[in-house]
Write a structure and sequence with these properties.
This protein is an alpha/beta fold and 312 residues long. The chain has two domains: 78 residues, Orthogonal Bundle (Arc Repressor Mutant, subunit A); 226 residues, D-Maltodextrin-Binding Protein, domain 2, CATH 3.40.190. It has ten helices and 13 strands.
């Protein structure tokens, strides 16, 4: 069974390293298990492709059967789990969404639904709902995932934030950003915001970067630089004054939040309860941000000087 799981993960990821990460084992363990499976079957399942791997023809056919078998096993396990513990809701989210959005609100869910128990799995990998022990997922993306239903929960937007105690004082104009360390996150670029703000600054190529938005914001809280923050992950940091929203320029993000589930779960009472709560929380947050934007527009914004600033 372990060899089959190693094969399925490698076939799905087309990377021994990513397969090892998904199964929480070493690269060597994955390689050894696949080699043992190939020896047992008497065929090669993978071949090298540049710096990665790809399935052979035999591997492709075998992968289809193995995925179907694991899907059936997972469905059986979930069905038994539903009957054994109908109170449990198993939810997959990203670590940043768990830390910055879900955890500050989770008490309100338990108060509203004392008969349900949330079981939260935070992982950067996209879980396979047909294979993994998960009921629903909250995903951040374009909304196109095969084999699942995806309901839009919220859009997102970006704006700079910093600690009120940042060295050098809080910047007064977008052009002042040239004097500060700009913190970076994977696949979330400063250039679109620069253009919207009317400043001619290059995309930061040096300095600290993060693959988790919660770490990015924590670095900003600690005064290590200015972060391009996602509105949905700000939590209580603006309310508590540990971060300041800079300027009145905000740009829409290309990705959105979705509630994702298998079609067979569409009529689940647990899904209905979780969906209703999520939508109510996102709606309340949207109203809060309308108030923040209204307050910002009511104040006199600092004059935007130096619209063509450049780095020295």
């Amino acid at each position: 069974m372990q060899a089959l799981r190693a094969f399925e993960a490698a076939a799905r990821e087309l990377s021994l390293t990513r397969a090892a990460t998904a199964l929480h084992v070493t690269h060597g363990a994955i390689s050894h298990q696949i080699k043992a499976l190939e020896d047992d079957l008497g065929v090669r399942l993978f071949e090298r492709a540049g710096r990665g791997i790809r399935l052979t023809d035999e591997g492709e056919r075998f992968a289809v059967r193995v995925r179907a078998a694991f899907g059936e096993l997972s469905a059986g396990v979930q069905e038994i789990g539903e009957r054994a513990n109908p109170r449990r809701i198993r939810v997959s989210v990203t670590p940043s969404f768990a830390a910055r959005w879900l955890l500050p609100r989770i008490g309100r869910f338990t108060a509203a639904h004392p008969n349900l128990d949330l079981d939260i799995s935070a992982n950067i990998s996209v879980v396979d709902l047909a294979r993994d022990d998960v009921d629903f997922a909250v995903r951040y993306g374009m909304g196109h995932w095969p084999g699942v239903a995806a309901e839009l929960l919220s859009d997102d937007s970006f704006f700079p934030v910093c600690s009120p105690g940042i060295a050098g004082g809080v910047p007064r104009t977008p052009g002042d950003l040239v004097r500060y360390p700009l913190l970076r996150a994977d696949d979330e670029f400063w250039t679109p915001w620069f253009r919207a703000a009317g400043v001619d600054l290059p995309e930061p190529a040096r300095g600290t970067s993060f693959n988790d938005s919660s770490h990015l914001l924590q670095a900003a809280i600690e005064g290590q630089g200015i972060a391009l923050a996602r509105r949905t992950l700000m939590g209580n940091d603006l309310r508590n004054g540990v971060l300041i929203k800079l300027f009145d320029v905000e740009i829409p993000g290309p990705r959105k939040f979705y509630l994702v589930y298998l079609p067979r779960m569409a009529a689940s009472p647990k899904l209905a309860a979780f969906r209703s709560w999520l939508n109510a929380e996102f709606a309340a947050e949207a109203e809060y941000w309308k108030g923040v934007q209204g307050s910002a527009q009511g104040r006199s914004a600092p004059a935007r000087t130096r619209p063509r600033a450049s780095r020295h």
